[in-house]
Amino acid sequence: MTHFRFSVFLAYCLVFVSANLAAQSLKPVTLDDIWGRTAGVFSQRTVQGVNWMKAGGQYTTQTDGRIIQYSITTGLPTDTLFDQRTAKVTGSGQTVVMDGYALSADERKLLITTAEEPIYRRSSRAEFYVYDLATGQLKALSSNGKQQYATFSPDGKRVAFVRDNNLFVSDLLTAKETQLTTDGKRNAIINGAADWVYEEEFSMARAFEWSPDSRRVAWIRFDETRVPEYNMQTWGKLYPADYRYKYPKAGEANSTVSVLIADISTGKKVLAQTGSETDIYLPRIGWTPAVGTGQSLLSVRKLNRLQNRMDLLHVNAATGQSVTVLTETSPTYVDLEFTDDLTYLTDGKGFIWTSERDGFKHVYRYDMTGKLIRQITKGAFEVSNLLGVDEKTQTAYYLSTEDSPLERQLYSIKLDGSGKRKLTDKPGTYTVNFSPDFQYFLTYHTAVNQPQTVALRQTTDNRELRVLETNNALRQRLAGYAIAPKQFMTVPIPSGETLNGWMIRPMDFDSTKRYPMLMFVYGGPGSQQVLNSWDSRDFFWYQTLVQRGYIIACVDNRGTGSRGNAFRTSTYAQLGKLETQDQIAAAQYLKTLPWVDPTRVGIWGWSYGGYMSALCMTLGADVFKAGISVAPVTNWRFYDSIYTERYLKRPQENAGGYDDNSPVTHASKLKGKFLLIHGTGDDNVHFQNSVEFEDALIKANKQFRSFYYPNRNHGIYGGNTRLHLYQMMTDFVVENL
Question: Is 678 assigned a catalytic role?
C-alpha cells in the first residue's frame, strides 16, 4: 500500500472549484492581491474583543471605535458602552482613538487604550483612559508619560501599571498615583514587566498580579545588570544610531529574578522565598482564591536553568515563606507550555494541572498540598488547551488531538474522569471562548479549505444559537479565483515512522507530466505546519507559484508537536540533525512520485525554517537545487538562552550540539542556488546570524545571493516591504527552480 494518501476533509463548497473547471474562467492570484494595492482581498473576518459580562446574559465587542453590548440569547445590540466619536475627555473636550479596552470586574468602568506604541513582540506602551459608565466621564489614567500593562484591581478602585521600569498604582477615587518601586532603570532593573527573553520565550509581557482582595500586588523584579548588551544600528540619519538592549545568548548570564509583594495600604514589601539558587527562571506568578476568612497564597512557578525541573511554590503573602507543593522533572525538558493550564478551584481545596508525565499532555487533579487525586484524561493524544473548569457541574473543558494530530476538537469530561463528551462536530480546528459561568461558548472554526466561521453555542444542550460570522463574502470572492486546494499526505522515512504533510498541485494537474516542487519547512520543536485549518500566511503566495506550474509541499519532521513527548523531544541536545535528515528523506521520497521532476526540487523557510533551509542546502546539497533562507539562526550560540538551552543545554555542556549541526560549520558543502534574506533591525534572530554565515560562505568560495532589509525586524514588514520581499522570492524561484 502506498504511503502517499490524499485526504480531503470537506467539500469545496463555494470556496474552491473542482480542478476540471476551466481555469481560464477564473482570476489568477497576484502578489498585489496579497501585499500590494488590492491587499485584503483574501482577509477573513472574525469576532474580536469579546468580553463576557457577568450579569444579564450580555457580552461586549469592539467594533469600529465602539464598544457594543449584545444580548447573548438574541444577538441584538442592547447598548453602546463607549463610542470614540462622541466620548470626550473630561475638562478638555478631546476625543481618543481606541486601540483596545478592558472592563473592570464590577463592570462599572472601562480602561481604554490609545496611542499604543509597540516595543517588541508582546510589549507596548500607551496612553490609558478610565471611562466611568455611570457618569460618562473620561479621564487620563496618568499625566506623567505613557504606561504599560495598565490593569484594574479586582474591586475596580485602582489601576496598576508600569512606567520607566517601575511599578505604580493609581487610586481612581482620589487620582493619587503611588510609586511602588524606585530602582527601575533601563538595561538594569525592571519591575513588573518582563525582560526581552522572558517576553519572547515565556510569552509574557506583564509581570505583576493583583491579589483577589485587591490589597496586594505581586511582581517579578528583573535585575539585568549582568546580562550582556546587544547593539543594533538603526539607519536613516547622517550618522547611524545605536540601539542597545539586554539579550542573554546561550550560556551567558540571565537576569537575576525575584518576586516581591506589596501591601497597597501600608506600603510594606515582602520578598517571596524562592530558594538559594539564583540562576533560575520564575516564568509565572498568580494567586490562589481566597476562601472564607483565609488569605490567598501567591502561586509561583520556578524552573531551573536547564529547564528539566519545574517547582510549583505556594507563598504566604504576609511573610514571604514558601512551600513546594509539586515538582515536574524530565530527562529532556519541562516545557512551560505543557504545564501552563494551572487552574485553582474556587473552593480552595485543590487545583487542576496539565502534564505530559505519561508521554502525552493530560489533565491532573491535585489537592492544595500537591497530593495527586487523579489523572482526569488519558490516552495516546494531546490535550492541547485546558479551557476551564465549571465547578458547579464538576466539568473540565479542553481542546484535544484525540481525533487526529491534525485536528483540534472540543471535549468535556467530569473531574472524576467520567462522562467524556465530544462537543464539536466538524472536521478541522477549533478555538473556543467560554463565558465565565460556562453557560455559553463561542467556537471559531476553520478547516484546510474553509475560512473561519464563528458561532455561539449553549453549553447545557450544545445547541448552536447563532452564527456570528460566516465569511461568506470571502467565500464568494474566492469562488472567482483559481485556487488550488491543500491536500494532506503521509511520507515514510527510513526510521520506520511516517511524517504528516500537505501538498498543493496545479489546478490543471496532469499525472503524465513532471512538475518542479518547492518545499516549505519550519520544523522547530513543538511547532506544527500540517494542520487541518485555514492558512492565511503564505497559502495565497503559493497559489501564484502553482499557477506557474510548481507543486508546493510541506512535511512536519520529527521534533514537531501534537504527536506526544517522545516524537517531540527526539531532537533534544542535537537540534537540526534529525530534522534535516527527515526533510532530505521527504524530498527524496517525493522525488520518486512520477509527476515530480527530481532535478527541480527546492526548499525555503523563515526563522527556524530559515535555519532548516540553510542546513538542507548544505547537508542536503545533492537533493535540493535551490533554497531561500529568511531570517535564519545559523549557529545556536547566537540565539537566546531560554529557547536554546531548553533544547540543547548550555554550550558549555554540549558544544557539539551547537556546532555539529550549524550551517556555518557546513558552508563549504553548498552547491545549489541560495538566497539569504535578513532584516538589520531583527531584535530576535540577530542579523549577526546571516553575517556569520555569509562570511563562512565567502571563505569557502561559495557563490550565493543575499539581501538585507534596513531596520526591519524579524517579521520584515512595513509599507511595501512584504510586496518587495515576496516579489524577490518569486523571481528567485522562477529563475532557479
Answer: no
